[in-house]
Amino acid sequence: MRPISVYSLRLTILLMALGSNAGGQDKPKERAARAPATVAPGPQAEFLEEIAYYEQRYVRLAESVPAEKYAWRPAEGVRSIGEVYTHIVAANYGVARSLGTPPPAGFDFNSITAMSTDKAKTVEALKDSFAHFRHAIQALSDRDADKPQKMFGRQTTLRGSFMLITGHFGEHLGQSIAYARINGVVPPWTEEQQQQQKQAEKPKS
Prior knowledge:
Structural class: mainly alpha
Shape: globular
């Protein structure tokens, strides 16, 4: 892991906050639109909905960023655009393992960061990692929601770990949105919202 300077740390925090504000304003409306008519209650179903939300945002943003920008980083010692995505890939497999589902046979954690400058491989790895992570959650039971679980170095419950994981997704999505915007990329869901707004504002003939 690269050493992080105070300046870089402050810059990263600022970028994450900016990114969260820039791309998250339509989140409640979007979730309501995606939600099925009836949703099975319980921590597992609710968390699977969270995973679906973050998966589509990470994948769509990763697909929108030009390949030549994957090596861009705001400062020395801070993850690049591609490295943030591969960090999520590694986290998905690592968290799944902590929850009882091991990585696929032959999977090598050390090889993940090496693909961070390759857009095609990174996007594919993101999709695969979220599919694996969903499988890990589906293997769990709501009956175990209050069982002890260690996650990100903290002792909590299985239900509590879902909250920690969601926070981790949100933290790095905000970072990724800020990185994309600095490089001239508007998040696709925001661009769609802006286009819809323009269409709605057009005078009717």
